[in-house]
Structures are given as structure tokens and as C-alpha cells.
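Sequence, C-alpha cells quoted for completeness.
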Amino acid sequence: MADRDNARNTALKPCEDAGSATAERGVVILDGPDGVAVTMTPEAAIGTADSLYAAATLAKQNIIDSAVEGADEG
């Protein structure tokens, strides 16, 4: 039970460390925080990159919008 609670708490706290990607022998290897590693085809890596970029852009806009709303209410 403690392991599950720890995993849940970790998932709720965003990681501030960027992952890094390398290409080897026709595949892309994404090394993330906490020892996470994923091997993908080039097509899957491009799709992941596009999705991550779109989500990150939206998340940054959410932060900006929240700050503006807070300023309007204050």
C-alpha cells in the first residue's frame, strides 16, 4: 500500500528535469527521470514529440490564464 501511495504522490508532482533523446541503429531512445527509458520507432518518436510540444504549450497557456484570472479577481 505504501508503494502505491508513493507512486501516486510522485505522479502528482510534476518533474522539472527534461528527458533526453538519442538515436541508435534506427530507433530513438528517450531517457527520462527516475530511470525511465523508452525505445521508439522514428515515427513514434515524432508523434510523441508533437504531442509533448502541444501539451506543453497548452499547459504554459493554462498557467498564464490562471495568473490573469487571479489578477482580475484581486
The first helix runs from residue 2 to 12.
